[in-house]
């Protein structure tokens, strides 16, 4: 086979689609190694009650500390891992690791913290999810009501009937459910009514625009009113400015998270950051006495 032929055929196959397939395959094998070598960790972003500033809980966000590439954010690997066999493994690692972290927090006196975990579509529809959750809750002696699972609209709308069934089984365990990034997908108000859920999270794109764009502000106001009228709680994400915080609070949004309130904290720094923020009165939560 001539060298030239090889080069030509490579060009033919080097379409962006095939490049993506190659990237997926490479990413999957790198991520498998990373999990074995303990390169994944969680960062915890504080969520507060907007009226009282009390710390109500954390959202767990995955981080990949690569030995040569440095810190890799989920946006750079989660989309590539989606629909690979490995994604589910990583998702289950997040639940198991998160449950252990929550039980450590409980052991240090934080009894009633919400701990939010993001689910991929694949994990949400995986039949072993409810049993795995239950196992981890028992193993770590966690109050199931402290676990909140975040789902995006895209995971729900493909099969509403099935989604409803799975959500019911999760809630039967005592866990909570949040609809993440609300407003960015096919947000239909009627499905919210049908779905067993506890929280709705307003996507940060609306929060980012709310001070300068009346339509974003109107959307936020409407989502808050509607969600409240349904007896659910609203959480705004991506609060970066005090004026956004104030307006959301005036609109009666229950909870919020964002860089203004706190950036995601690497799990290794969690306790120090908790103490620092409480000392500086950024949050109003009284700190328990640390045992050990
Ligand atoms: P998300 O669930 O909507 O998480 C919120 C994202 O917004 C996080 O990005 C967070 O760091 C970022 N963020 C928080 N506050 C602010 C702010 O004030 N301004 C700005 N500009 N950004 C803010 P991150 O950690 O990069 O995660 C991105 C997405 O990756 C998440 O979006 C979630 O969909 C996904 N993800 C993260 N961790 C996991 C995980 O363990 N499992 C799965 N399946 N997906 C995850
Ligand atoms: Mg989320
Ligand atoms: Mg979100
Ligand atoms: Mg988002």
UniProtKB/TrEMBL annotation:
<feature type="domain" description="EAL">
    <location>
        <begin position="24"/>
        <end position="278"/>
    </location>
</feature>
<protein>
    <submittedName>
        <fullName>EAL domain-containing protein</fullName>
    </submittedName>
</protein>
